[in-house]
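Record 1 of the preview.
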Amino acid sequence: MSQPFLDDWIARCCGLESVDPGAVLRYQTGKINALLRDVERHSLFYRKHLAEVFVRHGEAIRSGRWPVSREDIAALPFTAPGDIAENWKRFLCVPLDAVARMVTLSTSGTTGEPKRLAFSVADLERTLDFFAHGISVLVRPGDTVLVLLPGAERPDGVTDLLIQALPRIGARGVAGNPAAETAGFLAELERHRPDCLVAAPAQLRRLLEALPEPPKLRAVLSSAEPLPEALGAALARRWSCEVFDHYGLTETGYGGGVECRARNGYHLREADLFFEVVDPVSGSPVPDGTPGEVVFTTLTRRAMPLIRYRTGDVAAMLPGPCACGSPLRRLSRIAGRLRRTEAGVDVHTPCKGWAENRDG
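->
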């Protein structure tokens, strides 16, 4: 088994000689302290949203002494997607002319109002750095990577950022047709001769079912939506390649975590994000290994930081160490999406059951 592929990067970003869960947590609580001081000064939304926190802990926050534990962080109120949709500009901690990239997303809920997310040049650079290190689990120097995710025409969109990141590890990225139709994909294979493929599960499913012969790929990275285990297993067997899954949201700055070769949970972007799993009804943190709602806090975001943002994704936090040797926590695969209704909360699992009756 190879050395943990993200641990050296996390240690470097956190200013540590080596990764240790306690040292990483101290780095993260320090970053959240700095974040609280920043949003009190610059974010109209968080100044009001955290008003009670600043009354109770303001002196300790301003002197760098709070929070110091996971329990302290759990005392902060959640941020919901609807908060951003209501007035995204109130989240900003930088002037509008310092925003390098804006993304508009639809939201669920009663209003359905879109939410807008802002990123600075420094925010995008953090994503590029993570992409370059995260994808190194499957990409080698000299590789060509075909990317089928949509939006390659949008500067600093996820496809463009990934293609920008690959030369940092001596690889090359090319954008393919997101339609993932058979003839066009075969032509792309012939033209670019890729070693690796990045695509969404729906695209991978379409190609798996339609291609007359397996493509000659060494590895596949699934991204953009949950990868059903049966689909991943079918791809690995029929295409004779390694298959990895990535977890991320636009809100996380695209990248969130990626599997290692042990394929036992996502190794998380710990230097830039603090993840929690909470009970979706009470909001209380749940023990490791217990499914709940994934919540995260941005640690290094400049333009539009998010504090305890509720993703609606259902997963469990896995304790270390991983079989690869990393002592850090990992997030399990996403089990589904929460649906909040007047009757309560349930879990929607649209990907469950794929290939149950196929040659999976």
